[in-house]
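I am still getting used to backbone structure tokens and would like to learn alongside you. To get us started, please write out a protein record for me. Once you have written the record down, we can walk along the chain together.
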Amino acid sequence: MFGMSEGPAPDRFMVELAVLSLLSEVAGEQPLICVIDDEQWLDRASAQALTFAARRLAADPVGLVFAARKPGTELAGLPELAVEGLGQQDARALLDLALAGPVDARARELIVAEARGNPLALLELPRGLTQAELAGGFGLPGAVPLTGQIEDSFRRQLEALPAQTWRLLVLAAADPSGDPSLVRQAAGQLGIPLDAAEPAQAAGLVDFGMRVRFRHPLARSAAYRSAPAADRREMHGALAEATDPAADPDRRAWHRAQAAAGPDEEVAAELERSAGRAQARGGLAAAVAFLERSALLTVDPARRAERTVAAAQANLQAGAFDKALGLLVMAEAGPPDELRGARVDLLRGQIAFSAGMGDDAHPLLLRAASRLEPLDLDLARETYLNAWGAAMFAGRLADAGDLRKISRAARAAPAPAHPPRAVDLLLDGLALIVTDGLAAAAPALRQAEAAFASADTPVEERLRWAWLATMAAEYLWDADGWLANTAGAVQLAREVGALDQLPISLQAQAVVITWCGNFPAADALITETRLVCEATGTRMAPVAAMHLAALRGRESEAAPLIEATFAAATAGGQGTAVTFARWMTAVLCNGLARYADAEAATRQASRDMPEIIASTSALPELVEAAARTGNSRLAASAVDELTETTQPGGIDWALGIEARCRALVSQGRSAEDLYREAVDRLGRTRLRPELARTHLLYGEWLRRENRRTDARQQLRTAHDLLSDIGMKAFPERAGPPRAARHRRNRPQTPRPACRRGQPGADGPGSPDRAAGPGRPVQPRDRRPAVHQLPHRPVPPGQGLHQARHHLPRPAPPGASPLAPRPDPIPAGDGPVGGPGSSRARRRSQGAMLSSEAPAMKRSQLS
């Protein structure tokens, strides 16, 4: 963390966590206040680490106070207190304390106005001016920025010092370490006496104690800038000679570089070695500075271009994308070189993808891969895979056919000369999906999935491509493999501190955990993803948060996420995120039974780009929505498309979803068999939300078929599962069975006795009718007229009465008594006493009963 030893470069996120843990541990002993002055001069990594801690110390007795001339982007969102300048009266009072004599009134007011209430300016601006200049108003600062005016004030004070004292201050300002022994040794080489520091200390400009400290950073800046370039090079040369090359080779290399008047290959090579050591310590900012200076001091133009490319790559790793692009322009000005030109294209594509995952990265990466193919085949294949992933992210916003063009180019590239690596297998599988279909790609995808799960695959390769490797399991509908791959990728990223890979892996794991119905665990992963993105400045669509909110049925939470994703992803060129948002719109609307809205959303999602997972995953939602809106042709077409993706994997998740979708477009016994198959297959998976939705659809179908007892069982199962998972919208569709259950559980209110036909008596078909003799079953009744336990003997009178109202009409002559018979005609369909009337049916049923009852078993009667 402190760069005191070499080793694997620590990840920035791990450093930030270490700072947070350190502050929390100290605060456990006693409350802590940490003041960071002049935040604008902090390096970006330090500012990010401190602000990361500041946002997460709410529960600890720690206070972090940042003082900044102008708050940087890292401080955005933190509570802010703007410190205004002193008022006119207070400013005049403070200025009077700094003045040693009379001042012209106009000069006094001008100083107060120029200082703008800044106490440092009020104290420093008058210094360095003579009494005559102050009294007459001459020599006052011109119209320059306040910072420049303060620095000019320090410069005037320096000019009043003896020459040797001034040289000593320039020497001290040239070494930012503040090591007094180093400054004294270098001063001895330059012939500067040790007592030269006394006038500067007497003036309060500098203090030579345990460390060399200037009164203000602007005083150091003024001292260094007051010296001509030749004098500054002389100072750095002396400091380089005084630095021990074994104890501090990097500082010595830096001073040698500042002392160089022109290109020097020896110094450039030393700086390049220092950059390597800085990267080994995790000092990306130092590595960038070393490499940039090394490139400037390189004599050979081709070598200079190579070092410039290395400096651009270091800036990319440090997140300085604009600076990296500027260095690439300088690198292209070097002598022509095909390999270097291909690397420049590769870096440009990586910068475009890292900066926003937009639609401008994959063309650059494709061009780089084509140029690398005859020069470095392994790097070319890796670049093709990068291009495929970038085009997949761009999705529908990419140019038509871009993903197909990349896939064809990857398929046409030569096979590796060595046994295929995991990355080679993955590239072959993903490219085959686009060119030949999932059935042809499935074997390669299975091999890639196994290779990335193997311990034989290098850690660096597994880590770098984990975000694409999980797609093999997704395309194959392999929930177990998907879960294992994402868990392994997250664990690996955490162990090695790969902050660039961690957000993608966390989000992928959150999505699959949501599919499994563990919403609290998914919530925790989504929160962690958001924190990592905040710490790194990564822009990523909140797909996992949308997925969780849509399945929960929380429209107030899901709708703003979906709308924001539409806007941000469209502007940023992330077409796959747009497709995902449409898919989640359909999930939400199907849960809320708004099937027309769901159909409209999934029509667009499924047509955006058929090769990407978000489009194919939206097909089950399209089948359900189209089936419920009566658009059977659209539903059947979607089932056919879905089958092309479910059959190659042959996995229960895929085949269960296919069976459920086929049931939605089927009728009668075929539909029921498909629903049962879907329940059976999905019951063997981890996907509890899909199983619950299948029970719900099966129960709704049974209810439409008037099989209310069977429907009630499925709907209760669905309701219990959905409620346990936390899917709040879907259980509302199982409302009637739940209401019936509540009616059975609540106390019954006694009713006043009344005879049939009188006001207040149970009307025909009432679901709460009391059972008893003389009350025939009506078509809308939900319960039998007399409730009996299985195999319980039935009193003859009551049983005969029940049979009289439940047995169908007599069978036609010659038919078996047990043969299926037509449904009874509803009461009141014919004239009173006529052939179709209730009275006629009762007469015929009574006649049948008197002739058949002796031969029927009691259980049949009951």
